[in-house]
Amino acid sequence: MGNHHSHAQEKGTLANTNSGSGASTPRGGSQRGSGSRSGSGGDLQGLEKPDKPPPSMVPVEKLAKLLVQRSQKEDGVNGVTEKSFTKYLFPMYPELAKQFYKYIHRTGKCKNQHIPLATFRVQCERILAILDDSVILETYVRMFSSDSDENTVTPEDLNSLLYTSYKLSMDHYPEGPQTCLMIHKTLGAVVSGCFNNKESHSVGFVVRWLEENCPRLIFPVHRYCVHTLATRHRSVEEAALAGAAGGGGAGLELATPVLARSAWAPASALLPLSAAWLLAGAAPPLYSRPKQPPAGGGLASAAWLARLVCAVPVHWVPLYSSAEHGLGANRFLHHTLGYRGPTMVILSAGPLVVVVAAPQEWRETHQYWGGPECALIQLAPTFSVVERGAKMLYLNSSIRGYPRGLRAGREPRAPQLALAEGFDALSFRGAPYQLREVEVWGCGDEASRETQIEIKKWQVKEAERQRQVKLSASDWLEHPDRYLLELAGRPQYNNSAS
After folding, report:
1. Structure pTM?
2. How confident is the model at residue 343 (pLDDT cuts 50, 70, 90)?
3. Which terminus of the chain is more solvent-facing, meaning fewer CB atoms within 10 Å of its CB: N or C?
4. Residues 331, 445: one domain?
């Protein structure tokens, strides 16, 4: 996209709001500042010719002309109308089409109800050229703002934006379009956490809150819009000839967590699909690390996909459910230890639902441990990332002289979360709660789960082998069980013994 940036600067249309995009990262790949981005100029350099627009901008040119043609034929207007924009670009998402069209109409300072061809092309190129994460968030928060000056955001505005992102992710679910009956409750917790009963916030406040709590939740909307603007010209003409708009976003895969099925997973009350989608956007990318998308198409197509499309991450596997396996520390340890990958521990205490994100295998020790991807997240009744950072996890069930139970927090003397040794009560931010249910989900690859299963099989075989060990006569004479039998009144264990 480095070519996009230079091309827009030559036209004098790109604002200098993405100056920090050189160090940004691909959408959905990692959090801000955790990676690096290389420009696409080297990828597309061989396709450029003098006195011609960069090849990556040709799709926008074609799309603008095709939409103007359709608007002239169907609406009698020399420009892009909202009707044609919705019909041929976002037929499956009318709310996104409405907000997107309103935004480019407003930023382009159009005097009529339609958008002139040149203005449409310039505004689309400006959106395609955005690389910085914070600029992307600000753009779409402003886009969905109902305020005429785009400076104020209401709870309804944020809810609409979040629902659009959720709908896009679920429609591109690898097993087909999905739905979740808990989506409104999930979105309500996010909106409540952001606004805290306030009627409105500034755009800057909402952007900062999203960056702190769920930085990657909005990026699927941007990926989808960029993918549509870059590829839709191929099907607009065919759809017009057929008399109907085509599908929305064929070939696009978004970073949607895939929940593995089991006997109890479909009935999981603590992690419905909408909650998994929310956690995937709030937790560090380690927990929903995607696989590399397959390369296909020409050089320009591969550059678009590598930069804008994020493939589906590995499966989230259910490891432990107190409703299925019983509530207790020994049950938790049995089903969780040995899983060599990141996990999500979900604790329910009535209306309070808290998630402990562990980036590596759980282990018992008297010290706090964990990498920088550790996180403590409140999922309900309001959503927020309570704390994140290294060395904030603690688990001890056997070491004497140290606190027993599970803890999470960067301050060992006053952890944000403290789960009692008996797994019957917990303390969250100093307030006591009665623990009702626990679930553990593995967020690693398939090899992590297979390794845990192999370890447990070995443990079972080893226990069987030790139970079947035959003692020699000399060993039995000194064995403690022999003395116990004599105390019980049976001096001879075997009648044939002398």
Report:
1. 0.73
2. very high
3. C
4. yes
